[in-house]
Amino acid sequence: MNLILYVVASGIITLPNGKKSPFSTKVPVPLSRALSDALVGSADPINTYKFLSGSDDNDPLLLWVKERTEEGFTVEWKYC
Amino acid sequence: MNLHIRRVNSKSFWVTYPSGAKIRFSREKIKGMYGLWSKASNLGDPSDKEDTLHIQGQDLLSRFYEEASKTLEGEALFHLSEEDTLTKITVLAYGDITLPNGKRKGFQDTFTLYPSPKDILGILSSGNNYVAYSKLYGDPKLKLLKWIREREAEGFTVEWLSEG
Question: By CB count within 10 A, which of A9, A30, A76, B22 is most buried?
């Protein structure tokens, strides 16, 4: 059974008018139930995802997570 | 295009638009518009109990909408069904944000509505026209304009990206 898991990046951005605003963005990830549950509960979701899905560093999802993390956002794997 | 007209009483009519919006017009106010309607449709007297109007031609349609927006009565019911979503309106807001790590980055956001019918989109080049449009075809809470004002207040530049 496939579920939609979301990877959510959240943080505080500064708007063009100078005010700070909470901001979040998310990408849907269709995954098996087993993999989704493992990721949501994992302390190291990136390596868990790579191990269980057989993906590498060029996986678009992992690249997205890496970019958001570098931008200073907090990234979570969760059901939405 | 069909407009369904139903008489409520001797002084007013309900007009059902393809979008599903139902608007009540008084007989007096409908009179001017009806000249256009009957010319296009060969429809009989507006006091007929019920009839269906066929309008053809973009120009005539535009004139009709223009008149309709001027003569809109206060009592109206609106809804927009998914079946009638013929096209969409997209508004784009863009500007530079500062990321949590302190770096600046271009950012844009869009707001999309799926109105009906698409024929009216020719007038949707400004917020004021959108107000007139929304009274006829839905979005009674003007959430599109609310979104635009919020983005402008945040310092973004807002553009009407598409009109159909």
Answer: A9
